[in-house]
Amino acid sequence: MSTLVFVQLRCTPGTTYRVAEEIVLREIHSELYSTSGEWDLLMKLYIPEDEDVGKYINERLLDIPGIERSLTTLTFRVF
Description:
Blueprint: E1 3-11, H1 16-26, E2 31-34, E3 41-47, H2 53-60, E4 67-74
Antiparallel strand pairs: 1-3, 1-4, 2-3
């Protein structure tokens, strides 16, 4: 079973659409939204069972130019 995480991203001003396009090209997300407020993007991401969550996110997401900061929320149980 995979691990569901939500990742919020803050982008360098003017790069949000470029960052979103790169995420879409990498095909690692389940859902991706533009948001208002402190964070620019919100993505729903399933981490494969055999992968380390932090390493997976660092190697497949956070190397995209324009990402300034991220906040990852782990989920534990579906109700």
